[in-house]
Amino acid sequence: MPAAELIFTGGPVLTMDEAAPDAEALAVRDGVITAVGRAADVLALHGSGTEVVDLAGQALLPGFVEAHGHPSTMALTLAPPAIDVRPFTVPTGAEVRERISAAVAAAPGRPVGAYGIDLLLQRDLPVPTRQWLDELCPGAPLVVISNSGHAAYGNTAALRAAGITAAAADPPGARFVRDAAGEPTGEVQETAALLALLSALGDFRDDAQVSAAMDWAFAEHARVGITTATDMATDPQHVPALRAAAERPGAGLRIRSYLIGTPELAAEPGRRFPGHAPAGELFGISGMKLWADGTPWQGSVATSFPFLDNDATLRIGMDHCAHGPMNYAPEQLADLVTAFAAQGFPLACHVHGDVTTEAVLDAYAQAGAADPALLRAMRPRLEHCGAVTADQYRRAADLGATVSLFVDHIRWWGDVLADDLFGPEVADRWMSARSAWDAGHRVSLHNDGVCSPTDPLSSVATAITRRSQPSGRVRGASQRLTTDEALRAVTVNPAWQLHMEDEIGMLREGMRADLVVLTRDPRSAPAEDFRDAVAVSATYLGGQRTWPR
Questions:
Q1: Alpha helix positions (H), 141-238
Q2: CA 285 – CA 287 distance, rounded (Å)
Q3: Which of 46, 141, 405, 531 has the fewest CB atoms within 10 Å, counting from its CB?
Q4: How far is CA 279 from CA 283, 502, 504, in A?
Q5: CB proximity list for 275: less than 8 A, separation 6 or greater
Q6: For residues 23 and 58, what is the distance between their CA atoms, to the nearest angstrom?
Q7: Nearest C-alpha neighbor of 359 from the set 436, 429, 428, 303
Q8: What is Dmax (Cα atoms) for the chain?
Q9: What is the distance between the alpha carbons of residues 249 and 266, in angstroms, rounded to a whole number?
């Protein structure tokens, strides 16, 4: 066997390969793992040009796989000099106003966009009406996007520039919020409506700035150990820039895109899934994304249980309404799913409410009625899964569907779920990872890109503790995963969901040398200390170090 270019030794190697879960050393050549096993055997591949990395007791794992990320959205909304007003960076409404006002003053007469307000975490922030936004920016378009990405707010100039008037029809699966007279309030909900409003900002980055923003977003993923990320809702017009960023020499991230699924694409004659990317490709299209419902933070999820009627739910627009909506009627959703499945596209459906989940499962059953084995082979997905029940997880498994959970909802919004939206019982079963695992799913965990800080280790910590911030209360201890399970949920399981299980997610001879070095063996870290005890030390993509550079 040719000499290795790179050998890791001196610390535990966690392979995620059930046939050989532990090793002492690993060798790499030409971006591929050439040996994993005993240190003496691997070091026999040492040659004159071999670099040996002494782990010094640190742990080597497969690079993390972000099952449901948004690198392109992160690039376009958060890369400097973007206006980041998420609650994780700007905790108060007063600071939000200061940042937006400063941006408007710095660019007089030019469109301004800001990302990330959260009406439930930034409680002193006024609900952003059109009139309030007009006060902040009277002469040019101003658009403020919610942290969830399911709502945005525009001033009068933005509505005018976007052509959103009383006569404008709601886009499919989305809506322009209107007052009692039918006039737009400035709020829009769901993707198609957001894209319409965002058109008011124009092309606020040129090609060079988009390229730099993509590189920044990729580096942010590498910093937290991610080597492959799903771009879960790629605007087709951004595919060239995203592909170029992934394929640039020295790029830090493999990308697998799910395109934004629209009725127009579903009806397009001759459209076919191009097939999964060949082994080793840094960019590929993996499927279509649909939003079956919205977000609890905007009251737009369809549940069998009621929202609470209080100041918090009034603040997010519930108006004493106990139940949120789906984005499509069940038959519309089923028709879209069936159309895309007929085109060969694997589906990923955003879903939170248990009522919505039933409609998604019905849609998958309809799409697979003629050939259940074909549907199973496509590995259709349920994304986020806030209120999915144990019975629904079992039904999904029977259909061949797979699930990805946004478990950091519990960390950041567990108190909101319990105290403001639904009550403690629902909060305790929100993101019920144990139920999903016990139903036989290869569960993955994700951070949803910009909607919470991208950090797989945070997902692991939340999955094994179920502890919320800032109260420190545990939400649903019976729904915890073990550390081993949670690690599989950010490595081998999402690799399987992306049909990449023969390339990434495990450390096995012949697989890609996508690696992360952690400061310690995560299996020995006490659960309650995990968040502070384990950190990323280095990240490698195809054997090349991507962080730190």
A1: 156-162, 191-198, 207-223
A2: 6
A3: 46
A4: 10, 9, 10
A5: none
A6: 13
A7: 303
A8: 78
A9: 35
Q: Return the closest-CA partner of residue 352 out of 396, 399, 312, 295.
A: 295
Q: Kindly give the pairing relationship between strand 32-37 and strand 22-29.
A: antiparallel
Per DSSP (E only), the strands in 111-156 are 112-117, 142-146, 151-154
Facing residues of 9 across strands?
A: 25, 54
* Token pair listed for 358: 């039933």
What whole-number distance in Å separates Cα of residue 510 and Cα of residue 492? 15
In order of 103, 293, 341, the CA distances from 331 in angstroms are 44, 14, 15
Tens digit of pLDDT at every position of the chain (549 positions): 899 999 999 999 999 999 999 999 999 999 999 999 999 999 999 999 999 999 999 999 999 999 999 999 999 889 988 899 999 999 999 999 999 999 999 989 999 999 999 999 999 999 999 999 999 999 899 999 999 999 999 999 999 999 999 999 999 999 999 999 999 999 999 999 999 999 998 876 778 888 999 999 999 999 999 999 999 999 998 899 999 999 999 999 999 999 999 999 999 988 999 999 999 999 999 999 999 999 999 999 999 999 999 999 999 988 888 999 999 999 999 999 999 999 999 999 999 999 999 999 999 999 999 999 999 999 999 999 999 999 999 999 999 999 999 999 999 999 999 999 999 999 999 999 999 999 999 999 999 999 999 999 999 999 999 999 999 999 999 999 999 999 999 999 999 999 999 999 999 999 999 999 999 999 999 999 999 999 999 999 999 999 998
Find out whether the peptide bond into 470 is cis, omega within 30 degrees of 0.
Answer: yes
